[in-house]
Amino acid sequence: MNKAFLAAVFVTLGLGIKAQDVDAKQRARQVRDQIKLGEEGIAAIAPMIGDADLSVRVEAAKALVTIGGPKTLDPLLRATADNDPEVQIRATDGLVNIYLPGYVKNGLSGTLSRAGNTIRSRFTDTNDQVIDPFVQVRGDVITALGKLTRGGASMDARANAARGLGVLRGRAAIPELADALRSKDDKLMYESLVAIGKIGDASAAPRITFLLRDLDEKVQTQALEVTGLLHNKDAAPQVRDAYRVARTSKVRRAALAALAMLADPADHAVFISALSDKDEGVRAAAAEGLGRIRFGQDRMVLEPVFTAERAMEPRLSLAFALVSLGDISAERYGPLRYLFNTLNQRAYRGVASAFLIELTRNDAIRQAMYPMLSDASKDEKMQFCGVLAQSGQNDSVSYLQTLSKDSDPDVAAEGIRSLRVLRARLR
Predict the structure, then answer these.
(1) Alpha helix ranges (H) inside 153-216
(2) How far out from the chain centre does Cα 422 lie?
(3) pTM
(4) Do the two domains 32-98 and 139-207 of this chain adopt the same fold?
(5) Cβ neighbours around 61 below 10 Å, total
(6) What is the rounded distance in angstroms from the CA atom of residue 377 to the CA atom of residue 162?
(7) Per-residue pLDDT tens over the stretch 196-230
(8) What are the residue boundaries of the structural domains of the chain, listed by start?
(9) Considering only CA atoms, which of 173, 237, 194, 185 is closest in space to residue 214?
(10) What is the topology classification, in CATH, of domain 32-98?
(11) pLDDT per residue over 128-168, tens digit each?
(12) Contact predicate 213/242, CB 8 Å
């Protein structure tokens, strides 16, 4: 075979490859152009999810996420079956964004960068988002994210799918999340633990117990937190061991906080002793434990401690405990008013809200709080709407109806949303 012929073959092959590249770039550009059409462009973009060229599939996934809305759901579901982690991550964030608008702005896909076949991404530390109870998620979305959690193209893609399941309260994917706890990948294990905690299915609790001694601090503390959230009292001995032999202050705090959630009277002496601990987090957990055990005589013990405490975290916990033990007066400097007023403070309103959600499940405490709305600030009204949405009862409906008609549009909007959540809960 002569050299001229070989040269001609190589030139022809080279031109063919370049032509393919040009075609792919054109298709990718066409996809981007369709974004301008909004929903009308979805029909032209959807087939590109199955394109042979990866760059086109990535652009198609990005375009669908940008357009958003229910009409992108089916093509995004198909994109979760792609064999590329970037496409899977973008598809996951797009699906979650349909049910929780705005999610994609802070999702993992927003941190993606690509160098050849290498994908770099960064998980944000904030992972507290979850859809409202009245939002209904299609079953095939949970199934698809469950499959990704179990076998995505990369550990980041798997961890991101686990995070999405938590946001969407994907109870049907508990088996996949529980299996992921055995993955030995700290990121995936952590995200799966958070998701299980958000879903709140107590049946998953026994499958977490082995992580209460995990060597990774972040995984261990999250396992302790979820054990408390799911009230797995069978794990109390392991939680006590974690507290006793804690390697770090974070683990020690998390272990005592978990015991406080379990509220076993056998730990009463431990909580009393920890009230004077030098660590603020430990003192806070001790107060919470006493508030949940609810031994009447502890009120006299806690009152002077509440008055003397200056650190915000344990002081809020002491207020919670005193209210739980029966101090429900609305006096200006009392513990109940202190919790309510803290709803004004951006840094601590989440803590105060969590305590009030737990406390207002009690009829007497809830009734004691309603009069506070008469002179409440905007922030107090908005945050208390959320409290009633989570723990209110039929007697809360009229108060939320009033707040839904508040002269401040932000308060009114929160009142309407909270009323929907409450009614969904009471069905």
Answers:
(1) 155-167, 174-180, 186-199
(2) 20
(3) 0.90
(4) yes
(5) 32
(6) 38
(7) 999 999 999 999 999 999 999 999 999 999 999 99
(8) 32-98, 139-207, 343-427
(9) 185
(10) Leucine-rich Repeat Variant (1.25.10)
(11) 899 998 999 999 999 999 999 999 999 999 999 999 999 99
(12) yes
Q: What does each C-alpha distance from 383 to 10, 360, 423, 424 come to in angstroms?
A: 70, 13, 18, 19
192: tokens are 């799966």
Q: Please give the structure tokens belonging to residue 151.
A: 């076998």
- The residue written with tokens 């012929």 in the block is 5
Amino acid identity, residue 41?
A: G
| Six token digits for residue 181 | 């706890």
Quick one: how far is CA 415 from the chain centroid? 22
Quote the CA–CA distance of 372 and 342 in Å, as a whole number. 13
Please give the Cα distance from 387 to 364 (Å, whole number): 15
Residue found under tokens 């009114």 = 412
Q: What is the DSSP letter of 347?
A: T
pLDDT tens digits, one per residue of 223-245: 999 999 999 999 999 999 999 99
3-state helix, strand, coil in the chain (%, to 5): 75, 0, 25
Taking the C-alpha atoms of residue 235 and residue 330, their distance in angstroms, rounded to an integer, is 38
Confidence category of residue 109, pLDDT binned at 50, 70, 90: confident
Residue range 139-207, CATH number: 1.25.10
Q: Please state the length of the chain.
A: 427
